[in-house]
Amino acid sequence: MDGAWAENLFTARGHILHEKVDGDTYQTRGTTRIVRGLRIHSFIYGLVGRCDVVEFVEGSSASSGAQIVRPVEFKAGKPKDDLSDKIQLCAQALCLEEMLHVEVKQGAFFYAKVRRRSVVDIDAHLRAEAFKVIDAVREIVSTKTLPMSAFSEKCRSCSLESVCMPKALNPRKLHSYLRELYEP
Ligand code: SF4
Predict the structure, then answer these.
(1) What is the DSSP string of the chain?
(2) Residues lining ligand 1, Cβ inside 6 A
(3) What tens digit of pLDDT does each residue of 9-42 get?
């Protein structure tokens, strides 16, 4: 958000994986057209980005026979316990819906570490969570105020840990640090 960036093993792995899929290319397999590196946006939600892959499946909607549009995101790691990846996928779905005037009901991930594809429903619950994140990010952008960082398990593999120093803002650790500093 403030332009900070740092590389680590995980971001490097991600770059290598995305070099393979960010190719602005497409191919057709049967009734599915696979488009890579599609640039997407939403004027309604103020989003811009790029999909690793969008699949356009001809005439396969069970109810109408209409085309199915499905974003597919490639991840170097494995499925996460939290909703962060799914919210990213949902944001892609919102962009595609606005751009193509379709309803995106599902997206998918391919996790390289477990070499598995998993399908995600873009349902009302996920959309509501994505809207909360979009609102929170818009608030940060409009107020130009970054939230305080808080240490969690995911910080251990985050390339920005040495920049953002989330442990330094742990109130208990800060208290004991100050006590050690000033008490004899
Ligand atoms: S709070 Fe943790 S995960 Fe978030 S940027 Fe800082 S180190 Fe990374």
Answers:
(1) --S-----HHHHHHHHHHHHH-SS-EEEETTEEEEEEEEEEETTTTEEEEEEEEEEETT--TTT-PPEEEEEEEESS---SSSHHHHHHHHHHHHHHHHHT----EEEEEETTTTEEEEEE--HHHHHHHHHHHHHHHHHHHHT-PPPP---GGGGG-TTHHHH-GGGG-HHHHHHHHHHHH--
(2) 149, 154-155, 158, 160-161, 164, 166
(3) 778 777 777 776 666 688 999 999 999 999 999 9
